[in-house]
Amino acid sequence: MSKMKRTGSLxxxxxxxxxxxxxxxxxxxxxxxxxxxxxxxxxxxxxxKADTADAGKAVELNAYFLAPQVKDLPLVQEEINKxxxxxxxxxxxxxxxxxxxxxxxxxxxxxxxxxxxxMFAPSWWGFSNYVAQKAFQPLDDLLAKHGKDxxxxxxxxxxxxxxxxxVLYGIPTAKDMTGVGGVLVNKALAEKYNFDFxxxxxxxxxxxxxxxxKEKEPGVVPFLSTKGDQMVYFMQNFYEILCSVEVPVSMRKxxxxxxxxxxxxxxxxIEAVKMSREWYNKGYINKDSATIQDGMPIKKAQKxxxxxxxxxxxxxxxxxxxxxxxxxxFNAYADVKPFANTNDLTNSMLAIPRTAKNPDxxxxxxxxxxxxxxxxxxxxxxxxGKHYKKIGExxxxxxxxxNAQNSGYTGMAQWSMGGNQFLDxxxxxxxxxxxxxxxxxxxxxxxxKTVGWIFNQDPVKTEVAALNxxxxxxxxxxxxxxxxxxTHYPKVKAALEKAGIKKVIDEAQKQANxxxxxxx
Length: 520
Known about the structure:
By secondary structure, the chain is an alpha/beta fold. The chain contains 22 helices and 19 strands.
């Protein structure tokens, strides 16, 4: 390739990345459908024909997952490929990138046009925007041809959620259907000081514990916050984000009322943000909370007492396998009724990018993750006898001589590996009836009336872009506790009003009402 061509390709890649970033979080159903039709018309006939003609031939899939770059990945990949070769006559090249790099890597490889067959693509990393940009393929036909085990092993609401104008673009992971905001706690420290969690009704009740940790455990952060993530987790009990955490237009969770609001002005937000400010001023929250992106190294080193998480049955035990020590889990708000909304059902998905060379085999691979227990546990836990050993029919522990620190395949976020998480082996410390409890947890969730609706921002895209800027520059400091709400919010409010927040709220409310009216 000539230097001029290489330079041109790089410029195009950078331009596309810039376009994706500027497009914002939400995307548009109408835009997605329109762009999809153009893309179908423009797609080279030879390329489509090649996939059909090679359907029976062995192929290598290129896949991207949210996972740490572990040293034994080549060994695990080899075992995975033995299984895939036997089942679907394919192999896979696994690309693992974790929290500190996955999102940037995703943007770059999509922009570069790299042929990718399977990609982890959650709603909270701009999924709808990628659909609008033609980055992902429509999946209905592929699901019908190669996804019978997906349909058989997932709640129908999951396949309703990631649709744009009735077209499916993602395959969600079958896991917890909802989540409640809460915290994980270092068990050893909690027991050392005999903390009583039975009286906790709101996050404010944790504060006396933080005081003890700060005074008696130098070097330990009482409450670890990565970019103010506690506000995202705590507010998920009450609101559904309609675009991004930067744009404070949210829908209040309710069984009977559909209400779009400015979350910055809601009582739950105001109370929590003032609490975060108080924690920050008292030194309970780490001072770099505004910039730190990955708190895992601090957690693994046991330098944090507590941090926020989305909870579900067995969350603490799952995290223990990653952390290497015991943790406890507690809801941030007692007796909050769980709701399953579009965000909950699309927070872990696999997509098939437009650049996929083998979309049929890609869907066949995803399908195997929903029915093939051996394959699913290779992805989640590695190789039996090397990384883990079975200690029961469905329970495992580290293999002899292996632990969380020296294992060559550990630290996976099993929920992000796609497929049917109910196939995963349970760790030694996990309850044998975890999956039974998870089903009960899912059954307890109220399915939102707006599952399947995604805010079409086209009519207010200028205003949404302006709100996004306000949120990043003025709104984020509120969530992180680094500014005082009463003195800082009037400035934020004026900027939001100038950016057109009322117009956006009114448009979102109208669309939500129309969706419900059409889907009664």
